[in-house]
Design the sequence.
């Protein structure tokens, strides 16, 4: 891949010498669009959300850059800080929009895409109407270009290195923990939240980076064309950028550039002579969406001899940096105080009172519909409490967002194992290790891939199934996925671990090992464990204290012997009269 | 004192037309979870049906059956060829229909050219009441839309099909298990959505600029109405149309079209931020 990229850039640098400077001038425009498309691919191919109005940031960069060049004239000293600002403004704007929208919208629904589209429409209207600022419909004209750099000659030798730089920077970004977390967001954003990651911040940052790239391209565009018109912010350009990204390949680094150059250049050539060309492009786009999500780059990979080997997977670096255990304050107390949850007239929790003890393994049992999983949901912020309070270590936490609850030391394993299916076992483990630990700087350095902890060593001993870090999580059996998610829940080193039927789908032998693992880890590291379990043998072997839930409230609690003797519990389990 | 009745009529007119425009998108998004990005283009097809009928010199109202037939055929083909395969990939339906929107715009551009068209009024003249003269066509349109919505509401409440749709929405597997043909129902809902968009296009054509790129405005204003009103009720749809239409008309009157658009956009972002499931959601 590296040699292919080098060859490509060598060819790009040779273009003016071979095909002349006019071809290079035309090509330069589409290389700039390619940079914008790279940013779209970062958001869409990586993090899974689609910015549909990316021309807005391109256009803002172009207007600001053009204005700066007109203002500064020939002075690089004045111009350079202004140009940096012209690239930063779109990035900051995108960051603000991202925070605003992503904080409320988990997942990748259509809302974000349509909001960005609407913003691009607004940009078009403003660019048209604010004549004193933008020159209105006729555009901002007479932009002198970069001092000392001929737009028809030297500028091409600025554009190509900038493209090389953005490509290198993005390649590093995608390799870094940040890139891996973006992939995880696209696959299972909720899981990240329950590990304690504030995913909206990562998405907003990715969006800001993409807008910054669009801004850089916009500034160079102003120098390249010498004129900026409202079309540069409009939705038509936005739409074309998305098409180029899709057709070129949204999961690849240079695919979007190839898409922009190929389709963009052909469109510019054929638009006037072959009227059906754009119909062809739109049809190709639809087919790509339906059948070839990785576009030209994906096809190329499939055809090349590389594909005959096993999929190129990231080499797992040795885990040789020992990380100290997380420091947690002593003393765990959790109490549900008269918690009610009502949804559409159905009473899910009906005055639940529970006090969870500081240490040891405790089980929640109860018939189907008793509110066991709902109790977990309301505790971890997945379900809003209608009334009542949940107090964790003296602090009220009802109604907090999942990532905030997770950061307080409450980790959760779901009933249906929830992992990142298209990441490897090693990458899943990385992410759990990073939770509540990774600093902003470490987000962009490769050192965090080498972390190991005492808990990880214990887990590797207990679950040899997870020894091969290069297996994709989706290729694991149900039981192995249970183990992986259990391991991840432990790796965040919680104070309270919530396990929702951890032995579901496990064989008898695996169940025994899971029970041993739970009890060994809880003893060794001293965290409290609360388990929902149906299998009474499991409950008996694990738990010294049992809570019985029925109809959304606590029916009984005590040792297993006491529960077995309880008349009310026997009545609901054996179907006797109440 | 002439200002107020005129303003009130304009407001009612905006809400009524916005309601008609958003209906198709709301049905397709609400019932099927598909954000049909080509919704505006089906409205455009409706408007160009009126252009075609006028060019050919036929009776203007013939545009309605023409638009319904064209939109039904195109909608059926799109559901069969594209959307059907993507019900479990809602994000991809957004993209595929976005590509479709571009395709439809280009086809119309080739067939009719890019220039603006205007459609002759079917009911020229005005009606005088409450001290103002109001265009008769607008009045007739408002009455027709109100009747259409009332009929639709009653049909959805009373009919078997309405019950089946509700069943499909709340539990598609169970609905299929008790013998409801959900695939056919989904196709029906999609085609209904495209046809209602086509109808809106014909009816709006005499009052707006008809051009190949007109759809995007309708898509976005429909989307804003859905954001404010939420999914799933006619009440929400009307409230959403009232909030969006009211804001747009009021602010545009005071400070121009850009201001109106900006206000609508801000309101939508505020709703996404505070009430992501619409105005009638709790919490």
Sequence:
């Amino acid at each position: 891949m590296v040699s292919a990229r080098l060859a490509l850039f060598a060819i790009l640098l040779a273009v003016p010498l071979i095909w002349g400077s006019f071809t290079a001038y035309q090509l330069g425009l589409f290389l700039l669009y390619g940079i914008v498309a790279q940013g779209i691919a970062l958001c869409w191919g990586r993090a899974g959300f689609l910015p549909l109005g990316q021309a807005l940031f391109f256009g803002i960069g172009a207007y600001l850059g053009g204005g700066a060049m007109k203002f500064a004239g020939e002075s690089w000293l004045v111009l350079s800080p202004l140009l940096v600002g012209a690239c930063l403004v779109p990035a900051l704007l995108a960051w603000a929009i991202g925070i605003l929208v992503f904080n409320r919208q988990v997942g990748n629904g259509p809302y974000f895409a349509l909001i960005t589209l609407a913003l691009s429409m607004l940009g078009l209207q403003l660019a048209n109407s604010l004549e004193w600022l933008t020159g209105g419909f006729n555009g901002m004209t007479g932009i002198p270009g970069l001092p000392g750099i001929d737009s028809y000659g030297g500028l091409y030798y600025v554009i190509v290195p900038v493209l090389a730089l953005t490509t290198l920077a993005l390649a590093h970004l995608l390799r870094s923990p940040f890139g891996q977390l973006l992939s995880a967001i696209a696959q299972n954003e909720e899981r990240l939240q329950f590990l304690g990651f504030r995913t909206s911040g990562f998405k907003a940052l990715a969006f800001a980076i993409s807008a910054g790239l669009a801004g850089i391209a916009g500034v160079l565009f102003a120098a390249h064309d010498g004129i900026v018109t409202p079309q540069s912010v409009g939705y038509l350009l936005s739409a074309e950028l998305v098409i180029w990204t899709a057709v070129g390949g949204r999961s690849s680094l240079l695919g979007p550039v190839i898409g922009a150059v190929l389709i963009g250049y052909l469109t510019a050539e054929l638009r006037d002579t072959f009227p059906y060309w754009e119909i062809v492009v739109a049809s190709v786009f639809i087919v790509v969406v339906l059948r070839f999500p990785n576009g030209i780059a994906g096809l190329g990979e499939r055809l090349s001899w590389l594909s005959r080997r096993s999929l190129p997977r990231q080499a797992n670096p040795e885990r040789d940096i020992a990380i100290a255990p997380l420091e947690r304050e002593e003393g765990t107390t959790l109490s549900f105080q008269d918690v009610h949850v009502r949804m559409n007239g159905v009473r899910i929790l009906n005055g639940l009172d529970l006090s969870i003890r500081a240490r040891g393994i405790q089980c929640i049992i109860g018939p189907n519909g008793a509110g066991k999983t709902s109790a977990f949901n309301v505790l971890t912020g997945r379900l809003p409490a209608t009334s009542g309070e949940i107090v964790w270590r003296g602090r009220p936490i009802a109604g907090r967002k999942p990532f905030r609850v997770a950061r307080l030391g409450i980790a959760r394993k779901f009933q249906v194992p929830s992992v990142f299916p298209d990441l490897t076992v090693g990458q899943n483990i990385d992410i759990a290790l990073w939770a509540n630990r990774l600093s902003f700087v470490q987000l962009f350095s490769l050192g965090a891939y080498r972390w190991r902890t005492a808990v990880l060593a214990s887990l590797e001993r207990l679950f040899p199934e997870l020894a091969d870090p290069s297996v994709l999580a989706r290729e694991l059996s149900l039981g192995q996925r249970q183990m992986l998610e259990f391991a991840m829940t432990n790796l965040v080193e919680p104070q309270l671990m919530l396990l929702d039927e951890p032995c579901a789908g496990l064989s008898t032998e695996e169940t025994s090992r899971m029970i041993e693992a739970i009890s060994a880890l809880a003893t060794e590291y001293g965290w409290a464990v609360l388990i929902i379990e149906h299998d009474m043998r499991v409950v008996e072997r694990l738990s010294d204290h049992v809570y019985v839930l029925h109809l959304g409230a606590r029916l009984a609690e005590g040792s297993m012997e006491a529960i077995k003797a309880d008349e009310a519990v026997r009545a609901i389990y054996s179907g006797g009269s109440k | 004192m002439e200002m107020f009745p005129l303003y009130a009529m304009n407001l009612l007119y905006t809400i009524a037309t916005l309601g008609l425009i958003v209906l198709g998108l709301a049905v397709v998004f609400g019932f099927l979870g598909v954000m049909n990005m080509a919704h505006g283009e089906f409205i455009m097809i409706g408007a160009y049906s009126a252009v075609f009928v006028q060019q050919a010199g036929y009776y203007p109202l013939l545009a309605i059956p023409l638009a319904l037939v064209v939109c039904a055929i195109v909608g059926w083909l799109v559901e069969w060829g594209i959307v059907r395969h993507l019900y479990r990939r809602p994000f991809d339906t957004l993209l595929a229909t976005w590509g479709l929107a571009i395709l439809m715009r280009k086809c119309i551009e080739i067939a009719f050219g890019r220039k603006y068209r205007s459609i002759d009024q079917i009911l020229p003249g005005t009606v005088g009441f409450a001290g103002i003269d109001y265009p008769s066509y607008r009045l007739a349109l408002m009455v027709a839309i109100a009747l259409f919505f009332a009929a639709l509401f009653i049909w959805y409440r009373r009919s078997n099909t309405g019950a089946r749709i509700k069943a499909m929405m709340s539990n598609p597997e169970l609905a299929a298990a008790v013998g409801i043909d959900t695939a056919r129902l989904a196709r029906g809902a999609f085609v209904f959505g495209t046809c209602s968009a086509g109808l809106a296009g014909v009816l709006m054509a005499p009052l707006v600029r008809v051009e190949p790129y007109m759809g995007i405005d309708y898509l976005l204003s429909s989307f804003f109405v859905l954001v404010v009103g939420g999914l799933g009720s006619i009440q929400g749809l009307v409230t959403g149309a009232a909030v969006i239409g009211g804001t747009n008309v009021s602010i545009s009157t005071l400070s121009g079209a850009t201001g109106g658009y900006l206000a609508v956009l801000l309101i939508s972002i505020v709703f996404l931020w505070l009430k992501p499931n619409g105005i009638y959601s709790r919490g």
